Amino acid sequence: MSNFVKTIFALSLVLLASCGKNEESKPATEDARDSIPQLILRVSQSSKLYTSEYQVHKIITHDDVVKLNGSFFAKKFSMKLPLADRKIAIPIDVSLKGYVDMSTFSENNIRKMPNGKITVILPEPHIIVSGSKVDHNGIKQYVSFSRSNFTDEEMSNFEQQGMASIIESIPELGIIESTRDGAARIIIPMLVKMGYKEEDITVEFPQQYMGDALIGILEGNTMKLKK
Amino acid sequence: MEEHNIQPENKAADELISADSNTTTDNGKKKPENKWIRRIKRLIPGAAAIKFAREHWKLTCVIVAIGLGTAYAITKMVYNTATSFEIVRDERIDITPAEIRSIEEIGEWEFLSVNMEELVDTTKKGFFTGTSTLARIYKGTVRIGIDMRECKDGWLTTQGDTLRASLPAIKVLDKNFIDEANTRSFYEDGSWTGNDKERMYQKARRMMLQKGFSAQNRKKAEETAREQLTKFFRSFGYNNVELTFGK
Questions:
Q1: Among A1, A9, A151, B168, which is most buried by a count of CB atoms within 10 Å?
Q2: Which segments of chain B have a pLDDT < 50?
Q3: Tens digit of pLDDT for each residue in A168-217?
Q4: Number of folded domains in chain A?
Q5: Is residue A190 part of a domain?
Q6: Which chain B residue has its CA at the smallest distance from A16's CA?
Q7: Is some CB atom of chain B closer than 8 A to the CB atom of A54?
Q8: Is A172 among the domain residues?
Q9: Is A41 near chain B, with CB under 8 Å?
Q10: Dihedral (C-alpha) A224, A170, A93, A65: value to the nearest 10 degrees?
Q11: Which residue in A has a C-alpha nearest to residue B76's C-alpha?
Q12: Pairing between β-strand B98-126 and β-strand B130-147 as defined by DSSP bridges
C-alpha cells in the first residue's frame, strides 16, 4: 500500500511540474515553418508628389447581441437572448496622404506671360491610405461565459469595416485643400530658385475641382475626386 | 340444489347467444375460442370502435372525411400565418467618429511603388494545448522616392539653360507601409495575444522591406527619378538638366 501511495505521489509531482501558464509556455517559434516568400508583387513606376499627411485614429466597436426573431400566428417578435453578449473595441491608426500625380506634367501645364508672370496648373489631388496599424495590445473584449472569444477572422472583418468608414469620411476631412496648399508650397520655392519672383507665380488646379462639392471615387485604396 | 340450465327457446335466440358467446361454430358444432386470442382482443385499444366502424361504415366514412378536412384547414391556416423562428446576429460595427491626431505638411516625391502581399505564420506549443498555429496575409505598399524636406540650401541652381539639382538620397517614404486593417486571417488555431500579432506584423514588415527596397528597385527608382525630374525641369525651358542624388 505504501508503495502504491508513493507511486501516485511521484506521478502527481511529475504532472504538476509539467504544468505551466500559457504565457510562460515556449514562445512562438518563428523558424518552425518557413512562410511563402511572396504571393503578389507589383512594381509600378510613378511620379507622385505627396504634400500632406493626416494621422487618423479610430476606435472600432462592435456589440455582438444574439436575438431571437420570428413570427407566431402573424405576430412578429424580437427578443434578446440573455447571457449571450460580446463586445469588442479595436483601436486603429490610419495614415492618409494627399498627392498630385506629376507623371503627366508637361509644358501644357505652364503658362508664361510676357510680363514675367508664370502660371503652373497642377493635376487634381488624390488621397491614398499609405498605411494602417492596429493596436493589438489595446484591444478590449468582453465576452459572456456562454460565448467564445472573438476570432482573428472576426476581428479582421471589423477592422476592414472600420477602414471603409474612414475612407468614406475622407472628403470631409479637408485633406484635399491641404494637398493643394502643400503642392503650392513645394512648387513656388522651386520656381523662385529658377529666377521667378514669388509674387509673379500662380499655382492653379483645374477649375472643375475647386469648390466644396467634391465626391470621392475610391479605386483600391486611392481616393480620386470628381465634381 | 337446482341446476340452472338455461335452454334457448327459439332459433333466433340461439343464434344471438352463439354470436355473443366466446365460442365458434363449425358446421353447427360449438368450438371454444382460444383464451389467448380473447386476452389479445381485450388489449387492443379501440376494439369496440373498430367493431362499430365495421358495423356502421357509412357513418364512419363521413366522420373520417370531416376530420381530415378540419386538419387540412388548420394546417393551412397555421402555414399561411408564417410561424417562423430564427436566431440573428448583426455583424456590422458601431458608428463611431474618427479623430484626426495630426496634420503634417510633407514634400515626398515617389518614383517607384511596390505592392506586396506576405503570408506570415507562426506556431507555438503548449503541454495541454498542443501545437497552435496562426497564419495571416499582410498587404502593403513600399513607396520609394525622395523627401524634398531633406534638400539642403542651394540644392537648385540655374545658369542659362542649364539647371543643376542636388537631391537627397532615394529612400522608403513610409515607416508604416503595411495596411494592417486589411490583413486577412488565413488560419487560426488556439488563442493568440496582442504581442504574438505584433511580432507577426514586424516579421511581415521586415520581409516586405527586404524584398521591396532591394538594390534593383532602388536603382530602378533612381532611374525613374532622373527621367521624371528631367522632364519636369525641361517643361520650364531648361534644355540641360543635371541631377545628382545623395547616398
A1: B168
A2: 1-4, 8, 13-14, 16-26
A3: 888 888 898 899 999 999 999 999 999 999 999 999 988 654 444 444 44
A4: 1
A5: yes
A6: B127
A7: yes
A8: yes
A9: yes
A10: -120
A11: A73
A12: antiparallel
